[in-house]
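Please decode residue identities from the backbone states below.
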């Protein structure tokens, strides 16, 4: 995907390390750095800089929509995925007789909000088998009371990539009233996002998108705008924020626009606009074509050492993440860090993430360290 020359030009921080931790934090390309500097220059124009700020938001909306397969008016931004899910809860106003399905592979932001509403719905847990979610296990959980099914396209925990088509078909056939929300944080920018039929798409901005903290992309198709309009206070998402009747009623914008409740985090959106355009110029499909074989090489190398990833990769539909539980994980992590091989370590779990800027040498360096402990 990247030549050795333009890789080091665009990502100079990678000159002396094998960075396999993008599922936690990405390394932004230099164009993202320049976008942040441009924000500061525009900010220094004072109020006049707002013209450039709002223009950057619209450019970011356009490129985000393109990568999500939505229209620009179906995409908006908030500060993080946790905020997005709390706003989604305000839109749904679920009651105790409603049911929500979550999975044990989901990040807490998408799973825990339903446990903490004023009138918590009944929450049903779709459990993974051998690290993977099977549609057959979902079917008994679906019924006429199911109001929401919350999933991740790619699991932060182990890299499982949801088999989307049979999943969405099952929901629509068995629970036609249910809405489907999908966290694409561990997918956007790394795999081609094709979640046809989803009602809400949510992604943070500091992982595979190569952006920075403080942003979240929210996508809601037009036909779901009415059902998924937030009921939060604020001003930026209101039609009548400064109208004469503003102290008598709050008239919200519909759908995705309702998730931008306050002043945008302009610097995060400057950065995201630059990073998404960088990824789009390369092509997400090209990124996958480069990185997927590296993931499979890493998986094969780990298995050859007697180490079993938490879930097997599908060669036809890879994600960017491999994870495993192992004894002496803290020692392994320390050895990897000492060798400038960066992975995630948490509660005995080691997680490797392979993006378009990774190389075969990165994989080899990682396997070399694992090999010392496996032996």
């Amino acid at each position: 995907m990247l030549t050795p020359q333009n890789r080091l030009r665009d990502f100079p921080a990678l000159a002396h390390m094998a960075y396999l931790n993008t599922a936690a934090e990405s390394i932004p390309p230099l164009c993202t750095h320049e976008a942040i500097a441009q924000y500061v220059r525009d900010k220094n124009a004072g109020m006049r800089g707002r013209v450039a700020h709002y223009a950057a938001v619209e450019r970011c909306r356009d490129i985000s929509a393109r990568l999500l397969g939505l229209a620009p008016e179906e995409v908006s931004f908030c500060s993080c995925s946790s905020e997005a899910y709390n706003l989604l809860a305000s839109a749904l106003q679920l009651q105790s007789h409603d049911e929500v399905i979550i999975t044990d592979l989901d990040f807490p932001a998408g799973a825990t909000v339903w446990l903490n509403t004023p009138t918590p719905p009944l929450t049903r847990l779709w459990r993974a088998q051998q690290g993977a979610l099977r549609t057959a296990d979902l079917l008994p959980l679906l019924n006429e009371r199911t109001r929401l099914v919350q999933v991740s396209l790619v699991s932060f925990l182990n890299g499982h990539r949801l088999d989307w088509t049979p999943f969405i078909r099952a929901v629509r056939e068995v629970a036609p009233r249910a809405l489907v929300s999908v966290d694409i944080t561990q997918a956007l920018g790394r795999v081609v996002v094709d979640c046809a039929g989803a009602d809400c798409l949510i992604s943070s901005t500091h992982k595979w998108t190569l952006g920075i903290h403080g942003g979240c992309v929210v996508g809601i198709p037009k036909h779901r705008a009415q059902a998924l309009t937030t009921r939060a206070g604020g001003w930026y998402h209101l039609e009548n924020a400064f109208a004469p009747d503003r102290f008598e009623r709050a008239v919200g914008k519909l759908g995705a626009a309702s998730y931008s409740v306050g002043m945008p985090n302009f610097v995060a959106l400057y950065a995201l606009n630059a990073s998404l355009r960088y990824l789009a110029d390369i092509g997400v499909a090209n990124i996958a074509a480069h990185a997927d074989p590296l993931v499979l090489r890493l998986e094969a190398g780990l298995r050859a050492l007697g180490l079993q990833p938490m879930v097997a990769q599908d060669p036809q539909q890879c994600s960017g993440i491999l994870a495993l539980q192992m004894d002496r994980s803290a020692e392994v992590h320390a050895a990897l860090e000492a060798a400038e091989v960066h992975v995630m370590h948490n509660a005995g779990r080691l997680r490797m993430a392979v993006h378009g800027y990774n190389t075969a040498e990165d994989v080899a360096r990682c396997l070399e360290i694992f090999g010392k402990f496996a032996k």
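Observation: The chain has a mean pLDDT of 97.
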